[in-house]
């Protein structure tokens, strides 16, 4: 449209503007996802140690 | 095109806002997992895990329990995605996240599928393949066989579909021992035959809801009297079945006593439901049976758990 030339838009029209409540919920979701990912990283680490046992140190260089 | 205001709501990047997506809080997602059902799943799975032969490392046991709980929750989310239309009609379910608009159907679907795949793969890789396969079958059974197929097509929906809720102790047993034997099959059978009288007692006083939503529950299709008879017959079969682990030597005297005493009260309540057919007394009888059926199942499994824990301590 506009023969390839883009008209500059005012900043307030750029994208979706979230309400404070939506921002709060997005932040809560982000924290929840980060917590779950962190928990899974710890769980997988611990399970690896448990399953490998002493063999976890058996690492020929 | 994006420079034209009218196209804002139609263009793909903004479609999710129009669909009400991205507005949910973590609590809404947690609700999608049906936490109350999940708590029963965790409890019965714990019993299967503790009673299974062999020693399982506590971290592996915790991982198994977590995967079973998340798998069950994922099945619940997929159930809410598929049933959003009828959930919106029934008073018991209309406040669920999807019909109330807090979570979009697309988000519930993605959430359920992701957690299903993740729980099955993690259980299969970190615990054992049999447990992973059984969990996958449980989710498939609940979502496809029960939710998509049976629920809206036959009054036997919760009879057959009840198998999905009965699988968790079996999955947990497989997770702990790598095998399946008669004892976990008995635990499965107890929950399987407990489900119809439990759900039909609820359906008796929620029949209007189910009728409005077009769900062919037994009180809607066969009438309340036939439902009362079926509740009594299933309860009469359930009570001796629930006592059988004691008779077969899988459980001790404490379990036998609880199974007989609580079972006698279950039969009494089922008999009251059968006899009281009119007015407020009929509703009260159905509510009493529904409420006590939860206590009954909890008491059975709690005693099994207690016997296993005490037996383990005395060894």
Automatic annotation (TrEMBL), chain B:
GO terms for molecular function: protoheme IX farnesyltransferase activity. It comes from the Bacteria. Pfam families: UbiA. Pathway: Porphyrin-containing compound metabolism; heme O biosynthesis; heme O from protoheme: step 1/1. It is found in: Cell membrane. CDD domains: PT_UbiA_Cox10. It catalyses: heme b + (2E,6E)-farnesyl diphosphate + H2O = Fe(II)-heme o + diphosphate. Gene3D superfamilies: UbiA prenyltransferase (1.10.357.140). It is a multi-pass membrane protein. GO terms for cellular component: plasma membrane. Keywords: Cell membrane, Heme biosynthesis, Membrane, Transferase, Transmembrane, Transmembrane helix. PROSITE patterns: UBIA. Its EC number is 2.5.1.141. GO terms for biological process: heme O biosynthetic process. InterPro entries: Protohaem_IX_farnesylTrfase, UbiA_prenyltransferase, UbiA_prenylTrfase_CS, UbiA_sf. The chain crosses the membrane at residues 37-54, 60-82, 103-123, 129-150, 157-179, 185-205, 231-248, 254-274, 294-314. Converts heme B (protoheme IX) to heme O by substitution of the vinyl group on carbon 2 of heme B porphyrin ring with a hydroxyethyl farnesyl side group. Carbon 2 of the heme B porphyrin ring is defined according to the Fischer nomenclature. Belongs to the UbiA prenyltransferase family. Protoheme IX farnesyltransferase subfamily. This is Protoheme IX farnesyltransferase. The lineage of its organism: Bacteria, Pseudomonadati, Pseudomonadota, Alphaproteobacteria, Hyphomicrobiales.
